[in-house]
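Q: Sequence in, structure out?
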Amino acid sequence: QVQLVESGGGLVQAGGSLRLSCAASGRTFSRTAMGWFRQAPGKEREFVAAISWSGGSTDYADSVKGRFTISGTISGNNAKTTMYLQMNSLRPEDTAVYYCAANKGGGSRWYVPRRVVDYDDWGQGTQVTVSS
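A: Exactly. Output:
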């Protein structure tokens, strides 16, 4: 059974930092791009950042570029796959539930999908609240 488990969310003041983690298990994640999305109340789920399976390519939403950094180790069978999102200079508009997601795999080493439909497995989410 595939499991993506996020952690690290919480309440922080504007200008502060948080580091989200995602632990993935249950299938082979080699050649699997992974990403972070977020959803604020009353809004659609939106792309935040993605990393290719090689780690050699990353992509960010314009709203977080320069403030957030995605990183991780995407591994094959019986190895631990983890992903992180370092969030600095947080703003109240960053308040949302943050989700970890995994693509089905098989893309190029530079593939960094941005669409919700490009991802097959999702975590339960972790709440991030930024107070002004």
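The mean pLDDT is 93.
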